[in-house]
Records
---
Amino acid sequence: MASPADIGSEILVSTAFGPTPGLAATELPEPFDPLSRWYRAVALGGQGRYAAARADLRVAARTATDPGLRSLVESTRGSLLRQLGDHAGAAAFDGRAATMALGAAAAARAEALADAYTGLAADALGTGRLALAHRLLGRVRPLLGDAPPRAEVRWHWVRAETALAGGEAAAALRDAVAAAELAAALPSVRHQVKSALLVAAATAANGDLAESAELARRVDADCRENGLLPLRWATAMLRAGVAEPGHARTAAGEAADHGACLRAWGGDIAPLGA
């Protein structure tokens, strides 16, 4: 018979990296060790409950002793800042994550380093340093064979975003589609939905606004069904830019509403939806 700790861990993993990302925060079990606390923080962050996620991460940062887990905690702290527009602040956490990852056991080092370098690449992109982003992404590539599949999905995300920032629309779409194909084989609904959002964005960059709007409409429905408010906010922002005028105005209003909710949940670093 499974222990309460095992059952709790299964629920948290399923919410963080599996098929139930929208499980209500009140239904998430109390963490029983630093790893389960990291899982809960990832789950809460995916739902946009930033203040609660940051609280769990602060505790995990104090209590985790394994260098690999400590690195993942720091990467997640950076990810939450980056989602809210503070790329420079995120880089400090991602840099610490990379340093900690170097001290991790071999089995955990590839995952931790891949997360840290991918985060640093996204931080560089957010501050306009595309060449640095490309170099950091190059450091991730040799790690992917030993890292879990989600690391490669994230790598393709940031490659797609970097290509978009550089005006390379066709390359962006290739990486977005690659991410979506990889994510389809994973249990993580959150990774699948974000990958689909990137495909929609890259489709718009390639000039097909009608197809992008339809793809974004489907992504919005998936976000709503699975409680992924940060991705729903981002999707509304995309829809506001690609939909026909009437639908675009509706999407802009939804983006403002989603942003207000995220701010109420602790997403107060950048003017979301303003």
---
Amino acid sequence: MKKKILFLIIIAFQTLSWSQNHRYTATLFPSSTSINNVIYGSAPAVDGPLYTMEQSTSPQNLIMDIFKPAGDTFALRPAIIFAHSGAFYTGNRNVDDMMTFCDSLAKKGYVTATIDYRQGFSLIDNIALHGTRAVYRGLQDGRTAIRFLRANAASYGIDPTKIYFVGSSAGAFIALHSIYLDTPSEKPTYAGETVYQNFTAPYTHTAPDLGGLDIGNNLTFNGMPDAIVSMWGALESVNLITVNNNKPVFLIHGEADTVVPFNSGSPFGSSSLPPADGSNPINTKLDALGITNKETYFVPGAGHELYGASNGTWSNGTGGNSYWPIVFNKIVQFLWKQHKPTADYSWNTTNLTTTFNDLSTGDLAWWWDFGDGTTSNLQNPSHTYTTSGNYQVKLYVENNIQSWDEIIKIVQVPNLSNFENNKQLFSVFPNPTSENVSINWDSNITDVMYQISDISGKVILENKITNSNRQIDLQHFSKGLYFIKITTENATQILKIIKK
């Protein structure tokens, strides 16, 4: 328990020193640094080049490149894994769009990784069998990558509870199946041992059992991502989705996609390929189950890899088209929502003094802007305004991973009534003062309370005074401006005190 408290104190101190940095949405770092050719696992891959003989395999190291913000000293960051397109037949982790995602999001404060996964999809015969097994192997590799980052979170400065998966096309098949094909009972028949006829001798082949969802190393760690982004992907069947499958999902798809169906159908429009359910029926199924932890971006008339890429390579050679910044910014916002706190507050105003009550959730540190040029880092500050009026008060909050939120509300500070604003009711002297100050009032008034606040609104001293002792000791106060709120049964008055 003591270690946990110390950790929170350290994080709070760091956070306050970086007030309003907007990590994860703003580009805070000038560049990223990469750790290349990291082996995250090993698995048997079907031998090429035709991939028709499922039993003929060779061990394959699974490789990822990891990107981190250059110069970042923070060590508890969410991670994002990216999986490339290529129909489980071609492509690699270093294609343009994956590299751009990794670099751009690392500069916003994430740890990012782009992965190679096993390829091996024969389009010659037994296409349904080979296609199903290719997706299942990709699913296994995606889970292996997630387990690897969880197991090595401390080495790479990652929060192991916040690992997300983003896939394009074939990579999106991996992403979707990683959250919806999640129990052994859902394992496809073709992923088990299967006897099939092939055009090559000895003609009868046995496809070995591919094993469970998790194979290889780090098996004590969870292989399911904490949220996914599916860009123009599809699912074997929406029947895989159950009411318990409520991981956050962002579905992005062009409604005129002829490669991966937006609705239901076979990829590439080829009846020889097994049918799949695209983003639209997936979204419909989620709606039917009442699952709301999702977002969609469906673009009428747009096709596959709608942001201007072909198998991950920029079509114009330099960057994406006009959809690229839209897709990128929507992904930025979606992922930020998965780990941000939620800012909120209420307030109560008595004359010129407003007491603020933090109602945020998931927050650990606070930064208030009272709208009059003054600020505070207290959770529930009290602030005394010098004049009445409407003030835009902003509360910015952060949590333990430096994720943030902010809210602005209009706080109305009302005019004082003539009686409350009567400067003859109370007075303080001497003012300015270097030691003590006395309060003067009509001797008929009793039960006088006072409260002294500094310029940030922090209450420093409060007490009751009587007719016989109206003096307040200010010798221990620092030099500066203070506000004294004097309260009786029928009146409140706020005066300034200058300690010299």
